[in-house]
Amino acid sequence: MGKDTRTDTMQAQPHTADTHDLIRVHGARENNLKNVSVVLPKRRLTVFTGVSGSGKSSLVFSTIAAESQRMINETYSTFVQGFMPTLARPDVDVLEGLTTAIIVDQERMGANPRSTVGTATDANAMLRILFSRLGQPHIGSSQAFSFNVASASGAGAMTTEKGGRTVKEARSFSITGGMCPRCEGRGNVSDFDLTALYDADKSLNEGALTIPGYSMDGWYGRIFRGCGFFDADKPIAEFTKRQLDDLLYKEPTKVKVEGVNVTYEGLIPKIQKSFLSKDREAMQPHIRAFVDRAITFQTCPDCEGTRLSAEARSSKIDGVNIADVCAMQINDLAEWVRGLDEPSVAPLLKSLGETLDSFVEIGLGYLSLDRPAGTLSGGEAQRTKLIRHLGSSLTDVTYVFDEPTIGLHPHDIARMNDLLLQLRDKGNTVLVVEHKPEAIAIADHVVDLGPRAGTEGGEIVFEGTVDELRSSGTLTGKHLDDRASVKPAVRTSAGALEVRGADTHNLQGVDVDIPLGVLCVVTGVAGSGKSSLINGSVSGRDGVVSIDQGAIKGSRRSNPATYTGLLDPIRKAFAKANDVKPGLFSANSEGACPNCNGAGVVYSDLGMMAGVATPCEVCEGKRFMAEVLDYKFGGKDISEVLGMSVAQAEEFFGSGDGKIPAAHKILARLADVGLGYVKIGQPLTTLSGGERQRLKLATHMGEKGEVYILDEPTTGLHLADVENLLGLLDRLVDSGKSVIVIEHHQAVMAHADWIIDLGPGAGHDGGRVVFEGTPAELVAARSTLTGEHLAAYVAS
């Protein structure tokens, strides 16, 4: 047999190992999926589309990615699995052809105030090693440059048992850390306004404490009364200096209260541990309001905000210390690293340079390594997580992305598309949940879920190519080529918010007048200074309601009714109608089923294996005691009310026997933002990212304010829902409010009355206002990147 013949035979009969080129999902039922079956091609880019809440994340993240990660975890020993998060098997009949899944989601990074861009990636670790090797004077190992390691030393005698004899040895130790001792590596110091902690004219028993959660009714009250350090019936103004010091500053001390050993601790160290250990953005709204009111933060005078000790800052390479390096813009830092020629650390310099170049390549070159991770937007956080995968040598991996274009200007979306295609072309399977037409356009395969959201979704309504999607007649197909036109007439402003000399982050002394009484859209490439301008100079003013991108917090016990405050008027109405206490109608309080504690399910912890949740046999998943369900309001019990959708509840509480105006008002806002299909008692953990964003928007719309700031409200919104959002913004403006929107979506820009465009670039290449005017003027001028893309959008 000749060589050519053998080659032909090999091509005609592929090896069995090469035939596994599909991922098969059969019978998926996670969340709202309705027995979904789908076949996905491997080593291709598949985009999942559909309205928010249609089941995209349930299929991609909760089924395909979750099962891949669970099966990888099972390859470890049971001992190791005991230290890993336990994952239950998704509710699916068959999953075949899975490969290792790497999830790059849009969760905001770091609720820890010590986390920075540098610590969240490998860049800081490599810089610390670099300075420990090349820095002069030499001060110690890499931990001497870490602001998370404190310097410590000690000496003493240690007794050990050796060969049956007791031996005493003198031991000493010394740790050289880089933490600034004044601010403990935080970069700022806090000062407390004592008048915001307590009312000095009252005693503790009279409710002097004004700190959230510090009630005299629970254990705190018993400890304060029984600790013996002060009289709980005496007004705080009459405390001696010692008593006031014990109340405020006393270090943790063991005391016996009512025969129980407990730890007493002063208010300020307790607040520092419970509240200030969290990033501000991760706090609940009432805790954040208290912290803003009671605590002022100032840059640490000792380290000047660098978080590092004087010793760590004294060691330099070419006259630059590690704090200076971390403060550089990353694209400048990459140049600095390339300029170092040291053969002794060549592999380190190469790896560090590649990491920094990845930042630049992905469009984050405008950041600095000392930027707190909690201040990154959702899009920036997602791209930061992507960095560690860009130079990876792995192939045949499944990369799963959750809306990677979030926070990206149209100019930057092409760059993100290139990165996704690069990952695919290395032989990887790329699964993307996406709404933007520019990102859908590059797909090899499209899976459209729907037809609607919630219980009306959870089905595959289309599979095929992008061109086939356009002619498919599905909701996504119909709206894929939607293009908003510039408004022929715009509203005129009724005054202006003046911003003068704004210099937060990269802003270069910006002076701008933000018009009031209109829809004003602030645009610009990622990192141009949009959020710095609005959040730094407008958010804190009186009458301004700010709705940011921060994820809403909530456990499986939280639901739209508890989050929005809807449950309060409902509980009061039930209590009044039945002459009982409102607490009976809360599954987290007195009315909870005693068997499942109001969870509706009973959890069995199986150690290193996934726990099992079974519906509670006593309450049958209704979460309440049987006697509570005997109480009715408008002919319904509390579990039936919580099982209603927003639309059903709006009708029920709007008229007739079930009329509750306060509840109806909240439900109308939820319907306004397109959440009519969501059940009011549905756990928050089952809502998609887009649904949570709109839930947050509906909640803030109830606040009293004249100016509303919305940070990328189109996040997670389907093309069909953007139109509804524009209608909502119009209604807000027509009701006399001023609306400022930070946005990249061209449909929102075209719909604006006034546009403020920042740029021209990102980081130190941005921070200036490059255009102010109407959308029509921006399109006509085409003088900025935004103008060019908006002109192309409205013309196409």
TrEMBL record:
InterPro entries: ABC_transporter-like_ATP-bd (IPR003439), P-loop_NTPase (IPR027417). The lineage of its organism: Bacteria, Bacillati, Actinomycetota, Actinomycetes, Mycobacteriales. Belongs to the ABC transporter superfamily. UvrA family. Keywords: ATP-binding, Cytoplasm, DNA damage, DNA excision, DNA repair, DNA-binding, Excision nuclease, Nucleotide-binding, Repeat. Residues 490-785 form the ABC transporter domain. It comes from the Bacteria. It is found in: Cytoplasm. PROSITE patterns: ABC_TRANSPORTER_2. One of its GO terms (molecular function) is ATP binding. This is UvrABC system protein A.
